[in-house]
Design brief:
By secondary structure, the protein is α+β, with helices and mostly antiparallel strands. The chain folds into 2 domains: 65 residues, OB fold (Dihydrolipoamide Acetyltransferase, E2P), CATH 2.40.50.140; 131 residues, no CATH class. Helices cover 41% and strands 17% of the residues. The chain contains 5 helices and 7 strands. Strand 6 and strand 7 form a beta hairpin. The longest helix is centred in the C-terminal third of the chain and has 37 residues. The termini are far apart.
Amino acid sequence: MSKTRAEVRGSGEKIVRRPMKGKISQWRGDKGFGFILPDDGTDKLFFHISSVKTRARRPKIGDSVLFESERDSRNRLRAKGIVIEGVAQSTPHRKSKVVQTSPPKKNALDYVLIVLLLGSLIGVGFILFQSGSIENAVPYGIPAIVAVILLNRQKKPKEKKFSCARCRKIAEHDARTIKAWNNGSLKFYCRTCHQQWLNEHPAQLHETTLNRRGGCLGVLVLVAIVPIVAGVSLYQWFA
């Protein structure tokens, strides 16, 4: 087999590699390989689809190409860095990747806290029913308060990034989006879009904040008051 111009002639001679020209003489699209016939009359060279830089379309027989040659592990010449002449080198436009955030899920600790909360409330009611003394029931209510506080702790989503619901920009979760995620939201905005939303909906944002605070306070009041009222009522009923 004759040598091509891209081969190294000797260890002491400096060779500048230049792209060679040729045409694709054979192409097996189902196998992803073919052969290039160089314009300088040297032997045809094997090439694989992975060596083709042009991504706009696949090669075909008769394409004029620019390429370099190299020897593989078996010392066989093959073409690399293949560029199809007359074809745009840019890849087709791809849709931007959408990073979604999964909703909050309860873990083992949450279920333990729920059991602790229910057990504590039952204990408070039982002590009130037996003794009628709120002071005796208070120690049994402390675990319920602790459980409620821990159940409302701030968690973090497993995804560190998200896609902005408005501009589709990929952004990292921060304290603002983590708080919204803990409140049940799965629609997030980057800082720029969030500021625009604040400018467009100042009154709605204020109302939403008040409703959330009022809702949390109402839950705490119910958890603290309902067992006590129920226990006292049962005691008075059976006394």
